[in-house]
Design brief:
The protein is of the alpha+beta class and 199 residues long. It has 5 helices and 7 strands, in the order αβααβββαβαββ. It starts with 5 loop residues before the first helix and ends with a strand. It binds coenzyme A.
């Protein structure tokens, strides 16, 4: 199954009952009609959906500097690599749909970086702005704290106000900015670096 399989993408991107009534867990909402966002560890069976979500952003956005959508086996290989390091790989599930995913990976490969993790987070386009990202990232932070990590870094490609707002709302601060760090769709793009202590 290809990363951008149109049938799969149509299936998972169909708003269905989600529409704009999507709401992630919010202690203040006591409305039984509001969907609850379940964040849990990703399984092998989630990877077709994770692959489709990520592949869409690779092909259509500057949210990632990757330019060729990885296929499902590559995405599964990456998930295993995260788990093999003892780090979390999570999905957000809403009414049975996978609507987002995130994971932590070691910031850079050298051994000295082993207590610094980088987060990656992607929410289905029709579900953004409903706190799915906040719910996912908050759990990822918690899992990394429990794992004994020292700090978390976010590397934000190009202009991405929503990602900056998400990270700022969860305690990240800007620590670096690399102008013209990458190139995608014929455009030079910056890399904004944010960091959050985990202790
Ligand atoms: C970035 C992303 C993960 C955020 O997930 P989300 O579910 O939309 O985020 P939330 O609804 O939890 O909102 C997070 C914060 O962003 C703010 N926000 C929402 N929409 C915004 C917008 N258009 N502009 C600025 N801030 C915005 C919210 O107010 C919230 O801040 P608050 O907690 O202080 O109120 C999601 O939009 C996404 O997947 N984007 C494409 C991929 C991407 O850019 N990934 C990150 C790569 S570094």
């Amino acid at each position: 199954m290809g990363a951008l399989d149109p049938i799969l993408w149509k299936t998972i991107s169909s708003p269905g009952r989600l529409g704009y009534s999507v709401a992630a867990t919010n202690p203040a909402d006591g409305d039984p009609g509001v969907s609850k966002c379940l964040v849990r560890p990703a399984t092998r069976g989630d990877m077709p959906y994770v692959t489709a979500i990520y592949g869409n952003f690779v092909a259509t956005s500057t949210a990632t500097f990757e330019s060729v959508p990885p296929d499902e086996s590559e995405m599964e290989r990456r998930r295993r690599a995260v788990l093999d390091r003892g780090l979390p790989y999570l999905v957000a599930e809403l009414e049975g749909y996978i609507v987002g995913f995130c994971y932590a990976s070691q910031f850079r490969p050298r051994d000295g970086y082993r207590f610094t993790v980088e987060d990656s987070i992607y929410v289905r386009p029709d579900c953004t702005g409903h706190r799915v990202g906040s719910t996912l990232l908050a759990q990822l932070i918690l899992d990394c704290v429990l794992e004994g990590c020292h700090s978390m870094v976010a590397c934000i490609c190009g202009e991405n106000a929503r990602s900056v707002a998400l990270h700022a709302s969860l305690g990240f601060q800007q620590v670096g900015l690399l102008p013209e760090a990458g190139c995608k769709f014929g455009e030079w793009l910056r890399l904004l670096i944010m960091q959050r202590p985990l202790r």
